[in-house]
Amino acid sequence: MAIRIGVNAWVWQSPFTTAEHLDLVDKAAKMGFEVFEIGLEDPSHVDPAAFKKRLDANNLQLVVCGAFGPSRDLTHEDPKFRQESLDYIRAACEICERAGSKVLAGPMYSAVGKRRHVPPEQKKQEWDLAVQGLRKAATIADDHGVKLAIEPLNRFETDLINTAEQAERLIDDIGAKNVGFHLDSFHMNIEEKNSGAAIRRAGDRLFHFHACENDRGAPGAGVNIDWEGIAAAFKAVNYDGPAVIESFTPACKAIAAAAAVWRNFEPSQDRLASDGLANLKRILK
């Protein structure tokens, strides 16, 4: 088992564009990361050919994580928003194929920030819409050789999928071999009784992992998250995919507001990345 440690460009910059921020690829490689991840806020921001050339020059694997704002919502009652979400997923999968990402990750079932009390009938309707939409998305992704990794979010960011158990039910209902789990230690710390058990539930359908401390600081810097249990679970399921540091800076206004980031978590963003890398090497390798 060889878990590859990565970093998301959101640690430093939002939005990431290949016209302005390819230097972050160089930075990540020089720091010792093996994987570079972007949050794809706008597909027009990314030139896949230029991106792949820089990634290849630095021997970095790419992962694309989707950004699902209010208009990218497969559970929306208005079909135009469901179609916008599918159009975005299609564009993201095209970038994945051309730039070299085998996985499109993220909470693609609904819009981030959509959290309400709704009656059971509406909840079922939204669930069914998510399943129908993600079946279509799975076909789109398969046409591009891409896997979809579904991410549960904590209760403050969605009311649909908060736990690995719920994600398992959704993935089973979708019924596509290229649809699996994207788990995140930050969200699991809030929602799961046992993070290791959540990883074991995902098993060989764990396609992606975000490694974040409970405060979104450098992973491994705190004591609240059971990193030893996470590492043991990775070994139990033979996980050999990426473990990517995802954090944010308050300077990235739109993402900071969506993730409720109001302060810096470490002395600098470089320290967050470098300390997190050192800690994850110790914990996971």
Describe it for me?
This protein is α/β, with parallel strands linked by helices and 285 residues long. It has a single domain (4-284), classed as Divalent-metal-dependent TIM barrel enzymes (TIM Barrel). Helix content is 43%, strand content 14%. The protein contains ten helices and eight strands. The protein has helices spanning 23-31, 48-57, 79-99, 120-143, 164-174, 185-191, 195-202, 227-237, 253-258, 269-284, and strands at 4-8, 35-40, 61-66, 103-106, 147-150, 179-184, 206-211, 242-245. An eight-stranded parallel beta barrel has the order 1-2-3-4-5-6-7-8, surrounded by eight helices. Helix 5 links the parallel strand 5 (147-150) and strand 6. Helix 2 packs across helix 3 (79-99). The longest helix has 24 residues, at 120-143. It starts with a strand and ends with a helix. 48% of the residues are buried.
Keywords:
single chain, 285 residues, alpha/beta, TIM Barrel, 8-stranded parallel beta barrel, 8 strands, globular
**How would a textbook summarize the main sheet?**
8 strands, parallel, barrel
Helix content: 40-55%
Number of helices: 10
CATH-level-2 architecture: Alpha-Beta Barrel
Q: How big a fraction of the residues is strand?
A: 5-15%
Spatial order of strands in the largest sheet: 1-2-3-4-5-6-7-8
For the CA atoms, what is the radius of gyration? Answer: 17 Å
Q: CATH superfamily membership, which one?
A: Divalent-metal-dependent TIM barrel enzymes
CATH class: Alpha Beta
Using DSSP, what is the number of strands? 8
- Give the count of structural domains: 1
Distance between the termini: 9 Å
Average pLDDT, all residues:
96
Q: Name the shape in a single word.
A: globular
Low-confidence stretches: none
| Series of secondary-structure elements, N-terminal to C-terminal | EHEHEHEHEHEHHEHEHH
What is the SS-derived class? alpha/beta
Here the CATH topology equals TIM Barrel
